[in-house]
Amino acid sequence: MNAKPTRFLSFVPYAAWIVLFVIAPIALITYYSFFDLAGNFTLENYRNFFTSIYFKLIVNSFWYAFLITFFSLLFAYPTAYFLTKTKHKQLWLLLIIIPSWINLLLKTYAFIGLFGLYGPINAFLEMAGIGQHQLLFTDFSFVFVAVYIFIPFMILPIFNSLDKLNPALIDAAQDLGANAWTTFSRVTLPLTMNGVKSGIQVVFIPALSLFMITRLIAGNKVITLGTAIEQQFLVAQNWGMGSTIAVFLILFMFIIMLFTSGSEKGAAGSGKIK
Fold it and tell me: What is the dihedral of CA 135, 136, 141, 146, to 10 degrees?
């Protein structure tokens, strides 16, 4: 008799959270996107967004987000795979995740010191006879630091998928004569694809909106959608244009989430090969 009221009361905090911290901010951003600097209602912000300047900005943002996601996945998958084979895998996973608890600004400044002209990396290059090089304010430094920051978030979902993978499926493939590559490409990778998709979500989506790393590490030579939003809000004081860019950024994120969503399969409890 009390099931429905209890279910309703348990739903209220969740619904309030969604309304206050998801729907309301998006609605507010959408509202401000229809106003110009003078506070007049206008569609000029949306017309400006569909110009060549912002098209290049979108392409640039997606390109760097792709690079960051690609290199994160390239290193995260084998790392997660070998972690599942180690004796103390949970401990090693914890050691990989711990750096993500450190403040992002502190890590960024640490890399400024490492990549600086008088930092340890340039000191090593000079000792090796290569000479000093400007490592900061380059595409390489930006992608490297971004990959370092995001790679724990790529490793974790892949590790969970690999750890839950039913070992009987691997044994069955090997018993049927499949070599290591065939087993990986036809069994392991497809059954852990949901972990890969989750990793892509948590890396690609934030990489689209990076702005602090672009300013401190890339020296504003890399301009992303996040950088443009920051400049519109804090420099140009054009809240309307900044909100318009944010609206499209949210739309891009939603589309990416649709493409990278999927159902779970191949877990440890599964006893069937489909």
Answer: 160
Q: Which CATH superfamily includes the segment(s) 54-233?
A: MetI-like (1.10.3720.10)
Q: How far is CA 107 from CA 124, 177, 203, in A?
A: 21, 48, 17
**Are 104 and 149 spatial neighbours (Cβ–Cβ below 8 Å)?**
yes
**CB within 8 Å of 126: residues ≥ 6 apart:** 132
pLDDT of residue 266: 47
pLDDT digits (tens, 9 = 90+) for 29-77: 999 999 998 889 999 999 999 999 899 999 999 999 999 999 999 999 9
CA 232 – CA 226 distance, rounded (Å):
10
pLDDT over threshold 70, residue 26: yes
Range scoring the smallest mean pLDDT among 150-154, 200-204, 218-222: 218-222
Strand partners, 41: 35
Closest CA to 207 of 150, 250, 151: 150
Those residues whose C-beta lies under 8 Å from the C-beta of residue 212, and which sit 6 or more positions away, are 104, 105, 108
Q: Average pLDDT, whole number, for the chain?
A: 87
Instruction: Sketch the domain layout of the chain as residue ranges.
Output: 54-233
pLDDT of residue 265: 52
